[in-house]
Amino acid sequence: MVRDHDYLHPRCYWATLRNSPIAVLGQLGADSSAAVEVKREIALLLIKRREHDQALEYLRDVQFLEQGLYGSGSLQLGRTLKALGTVYMLKGAKFYGEAGDCLLEASRVFEALRGCDTHLRDIQQKLQAIQVHKQGR
Question: Which pTM was predicted?
Answer without folding.
Answer: 0.81
